[in-house]
């Protein structure tokens, strides 16, 4: 807890890690069992602690009970029960979030939706699919194998698709295919009092619409604070005919990031363009066993027709060379590309391996592309001046990058430097016209920066929306607002 106080997180927790703010009402657990059956309710401490944290650094805050509904009707009954008894509710998917979104800071009931795992409807002709919250992105793409379609949003972890919608996730393919927001066509939401809402209307999956307020976008990124996402209708994409990936090394961080901007300005249709600084490259090389030059590096992937791929490769190579880049060797075979991206997706664990026994925290700012080179260079200088271990990696095609800060939780002085650095970085992004979070969400730790980003009137508007849908503040309380 001392570390959380140093980082300014203690107030966000609102209670001690293993004590509810209010005890559950008498016979309440029996009422839960009456809805979903005894085997689908647990109050065991080990189970509660497993559901009281995600992959973030925030201290475990267990719920008082965990339930596993298996149908939307059960979610409705459980929500209505909690609403009548004024018991907090926390949605849980796979627990792969990075901002403490599943921590039950006021106790209550955790709804583990992983057993609702049906792919309800697949329309190849309409390029759409409807999934329940237990379906993960890898499970969906496995089901799509052989259809010529795929779901490209890839945050790295095998997250649940409804969880990805709840956090507004994106990942390495977003520069070509967008984030979760434009790829969600409809949501089935159980509201806090148990009512059922279809954000685009029941059964609707139109590719575009201009009918009323955009309720779907309201719930995408709501982080479980407005209701339970119990079904999502998603946009699918054709698999590219030809794919090629490569790495390119650069003499400096600025050269690598400037190359990114020029590739986008030249309209080269990159599907992925990822940045790793020299510290991150060295860590990933050691962790994954791939031998890469320890220098600022871009990972590029092109998706095209076989006819167009060669021209796009030529364009990318020319821009890389103009920025002093070298070492391009295109990988077109699937296994070669998989090894390359497995190395990139292991960046978090590679960073942690730099200091065994230490803890990690990932920043998540996003800035306009034109400001990216300056912001990245300033952040790199700030890291060095602060004496912190923080390899940099990012989806720079979107202006989104992360510092993977690795620090000793037993050293309050270092923890304080981490906190000060993250605040400076967030404000640096805001000053550049960007955001304090591109894809991880606000969760517990970024609420102060959200006020600076939106302003008081913006935050008050969010609070009025929250109060209209959840007047008793029962849905994932303590998060976002």
- Estimate percent helicity: 25-40%
Pick out the low-confidence regions: 1-20
**What average pLDDT do the residues reach?**
93
Approximately how much beta-strand content do the residues carry?
15-25%
Question: How many helical stretches?
Answer: 18
Please state the structural category. alpha+beta
Give the N-to-C terminal Cα separation. Answer: 22 Å
Number of strands: 18
The biggest sheet amounts to:
7 strands, antiparallel
Q: Return Rg in Å.
A: 22 Å
Approximate shape? globular
Structure description:
The protein is of the alpha+beta class. 38% of the residues lie in helices and 18% in strands. The strands form four sheets. Strands 12, 13, 14, 15, 16, 17 and 18 form a seven-stranded antiparallel β-sheet that branches. Helix 3 runs antiparallel to helix 5 (72-85) and helix 11 (253-265) packs across helix 13 (306-322). The longest helix has 23 residues, at 447-469. 50% of the residues are buried.
